[in-house]
Amino acid sequence: MKNNSFKSLLKLSWLMLAAFLMFASCSKDDPVPDPILLEDGFYVFGEGTAMAEYDFKGLMKVTRNEVIQEDRSDLIELYIAVKGGSEGFNIAHVSGGKPVVYGPGSNFKEITGEELDGEEPTEGLWKGNYTESTAPFIVSEDGLYHVVIDTELQVAAIAKVVWGVIGAATPGGWSTSTALEATFGLENIKFSGTEIAMSKSEFKFRYSNGWKIILDADYDLGDGNAGIKVNTNLGGTIAELVPGGPNINIEESGLYTINVDWSLADGITASLNKTGDIQVTDWSEIMFDVFGNGVAESNEGAITDPSDWGWGYALAADGAPTTDGDVAEGAIFSYKWAEVALKPAENEGFGFRSVKGEEYNGTVLRYSALDEENSDMGFVKSATNGFGDVNFDVTEAGNYDIYLTIDASKDDEASIKIVKSGAVVRPSTYYDLVGAAVSEDNVGAIADAIWNWGQSMISDNNGEITGTTVTWTNAILLQDGMKIRKIVNNGVSTEFNMAKFNSEGSTAGIVSGDDNIMVDVAGAYTIVLDVDAETFTIN
Predict the structure, then answer these.
(1) By CB atoms within 10 Å of each CB, which of 67, 337, 492, 522 scores lowest?
(2) How far is Cα 272 from Cα 213, in angstroms, rounded to an integer?
(3) Where do the domains of the chain lie, and which CATH numbers do they carry?
(4) What is the pTM of this model?
(5) Per-residue DSSP letters for 143-185?
(6) How far apart are the first and last CA of the chain?
(7) pLDDT tens-digit map of 460-487
(8) How many whole angstroms separate alpha carbon 341 and alpha carbon 528?
(9) Is residue 193 a contact partner of residue 180, using CB atoms and an 8 Å limit?
């Protein structure tokens, strides 16, 4: 018992000594421990984010200027989850451990209507100057946001991010994004789509239907380049996504689950997993006819409609469809009727129908399939019958040329063009040169209505595709950018840039450019595209 008391007294003495030493070592004359040091740079922080204070995960990173696709040291960005409401966030410049806090400037505002460039994001975009202030940047909805500033221009941009896929491999082609559904969290956001039909072709990720954010359209970069713009699309590979990078290849058609994941720790990653096969239709053995009360009996080959409907007269297309692409992967099938005699048929009109052998009760195509942009709308209109079906009709009797295309890779998407016979019309599938480099002096050149980029020049023979090459003879080109496109039903199916240039078959030293194709000297050139090899030459 005495021994235990002695041990307890000894322990108490040591504790008292330790406490004295600790107190002595913390005298008021000793310096305060250094705070955690932050790397110099710009940080996003605020109560509306997962980072109420400065944090390494809020450090903005240098990004590419979309104009030349090279890093610009003054251009920095961060993708960050933000809660909608009044809390928002600020941007702080930390230098030597001292922060300067910034908020929206006097002209910072949401960009809408005509102020919004056609290539900018459409789900919410704010731009303007930033200034030294504790007033926060505020957004109205929970979501992922792309925060961008240019420190030289002292301009900021904030865009709401809704990721999607776009490209020849996707359901919407190069014209329309297929959006992915978002699940929100301040530290993790998942954008996901399931059973998306993807063709063996190319695509990119882009957000909110935009390709870029324009901070300054006129900033002189030298070498004839102008503008400071930020990519709102990702290319490269699934494993290594690059802002504005090359198109991503789909090696096998099928149904896919596509995810774009953002996390506060790791930024943006993506995954692509095939979950099933696409059931594509082979239309090569299936005919179409135009039928109804609007089809004149005088047409050679016209017959009384043999179907159960008994609707006027029926006239078969001018032969089997032409086929473009791999039938097993989903080809494009094109039908044509030349100089069809049509007549007005009030409340009746006419339609189109698939015919297999003696089966006349197949797929029926009505007015919704009309390509209004390229049809002769001065003569074509709709007609609604007693059942509520909206059919085709014409305003005056005469001969018409009709073009029908079905894209089996896009769930049998159909498009019909109707023009007065003798009118020059672009086919449903063709290749063109497009861009500021294409001179309006070229025969058949028209203002581009798809990308709104300069002129569009169709290939020789009004785009008729024969064999494996497509040619533009004596194309007048200016010293500016252009691309080659394949157009299907008014949408871009495939695009060809400098990555597809075959220098060995071309005149040396006449072509340059990074992404866009550019000739070094303005003049007349012959351009040949090898469709199979997907390469082109310029001479």
Answers:
(1) 522
(2) 26
(3) 41-161 (2.60.40), 163-276 (no CATH), 287-420 (no CATH), 429-538 (2.60.40)
(4) 0.65
(5) EEEEEEEETTTTEEEEEEE-EEEESTTSTTTTTS-EE-EEE--
(6) 107
(7) 988 877 778 999 999 999 989 899 999 8
(8) 38
(9) yes
